[in-house]
Amino acid sequence: MKYCKSIDFSYFLLASFFIFIISYQSYAQEVEEVNVYSARHYDTDMALYNEFTEKTGIKVNLIEGGSDALIERIVNEGEFSPADILITVDAGRIWRAQQKGIFQPISSETLNTRIPENLRDGDGFWYGLSKRARVIVQNKKSNFQIEIKDYEDLADPALKGQVCMRSSSNIYNLSLMSSLIEANGEQKAEAWANAVVNNFARSPQGNDTAQLRAVASGECGITVANTYYLGRLLGSKEEKDRVTADNLNVIFPNQNNRGSHVNISGAGITKYAPNFDNALKFLDYLTSDFAQKLFAEGNNEYPIVGQATGAIAKLGEFKEDKLNVRNLGAMQNQAVRLYDRAGWK
Ligand code: FE
After folding, report:
1. How much distance in Å is there from the Cα of 222 to the middle of ligand 1?
2. Which of 106, 110, 137, 180 sees the fewest Cβ atoms within 10 Å?
3. Residue 226 C-alpha to ligand 1 middle, in angstroms?
């Protein structure tokens, strides 16, 4: 009798275990989620994700990392990758990710109407979500013999020993070069790179912020930098950053011709996205007015839909180069070789 009871109890335990597993599985299936791999690390992004979850019930699981590391991770995870979406910066880099086959083409009326054609991939592999311009920045006190208006002016011998630049392998400079090849042809672009190298104040080093500090301190007279680096200085809580910004003059290049070089932060849905429908809803959501404002403000960028807000708005409006950002990636290898020939380290 005692023996029977213990068997009964074992059955009971076993049955409870299976009921638990089955109900957990159906619970897990009911939890709607989207897995976002993001190279962005801003507090405002969390506010965005929370609002999306409140609106849709879809939970956002965030994995943050460096752009190239995340791309490699998705490649290595292959068809077992939990990633649904990759968010990263610079069309040149997004294009590289696309070449590695990690995205799938999508079609969304919301995305196609909200995002201008020049700021997304024509086949729907990725979409721009915010913008940055690469601008010329000079020391307020610098007294050059020419007035600097265009990127092309950086090649003028009047700037001998004045130009500080980031390395040519940096994706921002590769994309800028692609835009110059598009605008002026390879020969002229190469002559430009040669002449800019001749104007260097020092060999390329440091990031965009380092260039801005070097110009503000007078170590160099002039540089180029992405607008959000200026936004960071302008909006900084540190007084020394605001002093740095105070010493700088920002020039939006090429306002009387093609406009300033513009690049994007963007995203695409991964090839094996396990939560495809949720990923699509999430991307659509990122183009909403509320999301656009927060997404852009998070990194002092320009929204794709709506007006600039925050520190960056102080820089004023400008004319953008409407070159399709997809071309920035497609010409990248040409840009690398050109910089090498020019001796731009
Ligand atoms: Fe940056």
Report:
1. 18
2. 110
3. 7
- pLDDT tens per residue, the chain (345 residues)? 455 555 565 665 555 555 544 454 555 556 899 999 999 988 888 899 999 999 999 999 999 999 999 999 999 999 999 999 999 999 989 999 999 999 999 999 999 999 999 999 999 999 999 999 999 999 999 999 999 999 999 999 999 999 999 999 999 999 999 999 999 999 999 999 999 999 999 999 999 999 999 999 999 999 999 999 999 999 999 999 999 999 999 999 999 999 999 999 999 999 999 999 999 999 999 999 999 999 999 999 999 999 999 999 999 999 999 999 999 999 999 999 999 999 999
- Angle between helix axes 186-198 and 171-184 (nearest 10 degrees) is 130
Amino acid identity of 127? Y
pTM over 0.70: yes
Residue 51 is inside which H or E element, if any? helix 43-56
170 CA to centre of ligand 1 in angstroms: 10
55 is written with which tokens? 């609106």
Q: Are 60 and 267 in contact (CB under 8 A)?
A: no
